[in-house]
Amino acid sequence: MLFRDITPLLGNADALHATVEALAAPFEGAVDLVVGIEARGFILAAPVALRLDAGFVPVRKHGKLPAETVGEEYALEYGTDVLEIHRDGIHDGARVLIVDDVIATGGTALATARLVEAVGGTVSGLAFAIDLAFLGGLARLGAYRSVSLLTYP
Predict the structure, then answer these.
(1) Which of 89, 147, 140, 137 is nearest to 117 (CA)?
(2) What is the pTM of this model?
(3) Would you call 117 a catalytic residue per the annotation?
(4) Strands, DSSP E only, in 78-144?
(5) Which of 21, 68, 73, 77 is catalytic?
């Protein structure tokens, strides 16, 4: 298992600001809500939501959200897990941008897109700071509009 560290980016105000701007810009005027994927996705999704004048909705691992949830099981590189969203977190027809720090195999992103749709939202797109291209995650997203700022071979 190989992890990519975004903490140097987060610690640099100019880099963080530029990242938030670049993630938000393609979706200006097309988003009502921004969904952040636990846990590092929260760090980028919340300021992207502010930038887009949109609300923020967390997607978390099983058992972490306090209200009634909808869950989605997904495959990881090393097994399976379950993501959940509040059943009432997204109103019908809401235009939703999904944000995460890294896309690897795409399993987490696809599970999140399915959750958004299961509770009535429409996925406007997905945005990632880093694409680990050698794992093929963006390709798995199919017809969903996807943006990544940096591609790692």
Answers:
(1) 89
(2) 0.96
(3) no
(4) 79-86, 95-103, 122-132
(5) 77
Task: Specify if 130 maps to a domain.
Answer: yes
Strand partners, 142: none
Q: What is the pLDDT of residue 124?
A: 98
Q: Give the chain's domain count.
A: 1
The residue-averaged pLDDT of 12-35 equals: 98
What are 114-138's pLDDT values in tens digits?
Answer: 999 999 999 999 999 999 999 999 9
Judge whether 109 lies within some domain: yes
Name the active-site residue from 40, 51, 60, 72.
40
Q: Is residue 16 part of a domain?
A: no
Structure tokens belonging to residue 94:
């809401």
Is residue 72 part of the annotated active site? The answer reads no
Which CATH number goes with the domain that contains 117? 3.40.50.2020
Give domain status of residue 13, yes or no: no
Q: Name the E strands within the chain.
A: 33-37, 55-61, 69-76, 79-86, 95-103, 122-132, 146-152
pLDDT digits 0-9 by tens, 53-95? 999 999 999 999 999 999 999 987 778 999 999 999 999 999 9
